[in-house]
Amino acid sequence: MSDLFDVLKRGEEPSLPAHRICLVGASGLIGTAVLDESVGRSDMRVVSVARREFALPRGARTEVLVGLPDDWSALIGAARADVLVCALGTTIRAAGSQAAFRAVDHDLVVEVAQAARMAGIEHMIAVSSVGADRASRNFYLRTKGETEEDLGKLGFRRLDILRPGLLRGPRAEKRKLEGLGQAIAPVADLLVMHGKLRKYRSVRGSTVARTVFALVREKAQGRFVHDYDSMQRALRRAGE
């Protein structure tokens, strides 16, 4: 307490403790972007939970807790975080089947969220997908919608759902069609994605990561769904 009084006497701004983020899915495009964007920030401290060790960006203020998914509940508790950021996700092609895809994008995401609630975490930020809808005839979008609905039942004080369009940025896994989409997306965004189509605009992984940091600081309670425009508004509110 005396240190705080000394700071106030000198007219300095007291430094606030950093927000502690438990990041699951750190090796993917969004997870990597979150770690990259955390470099040089004193207001955010990221603790990653992962299956294996992975390369970290130079200067990242992060710890990596490694274990199999069966161990993640204990690791999430050990992270002592204020916010859970879940960037888990795969593709049906990479997973090998619809069942294997659902095991990651629904089952594992919900299990991670349940572990966070058991650890006392009251704020979750989950990366979903534009078009997510439990009533969709598209299996991918239906699974994403069901995941969002099940996360909403877990009693988080605040739940932020991010629904980005095509994600732009480096991926460890090379996807030919997605690579082509990334190349033409900026032009399509300018020429086509207007009005009701704006939510389908592509977005860089770094922009999603900065949106995560903006939302970490928001205090309102409830469930919030963020499309392209909502993410831009969150960034403006935070001055990111």
TrEMBL record:
It holds the Pfam family NAD_binding_10. Gene3D superfamilies: NAD(P)-binding Rossmann-like Domain (3.40.50.720). It comes from the Bacteria. InterPro entries: NAD(P)-bd_dom, NAD(P)-bd_dom_sf. Residues 25-170 form the NAD(P)-binding domain. Signal peptide: none annotated. This is Nucleoside-diphosphate-sugar epimerase. The lineage of its organism: Bacteria, Pseudomonadati, Pseudomonadota, Alphaproteobacteria, Sphingomonadales.
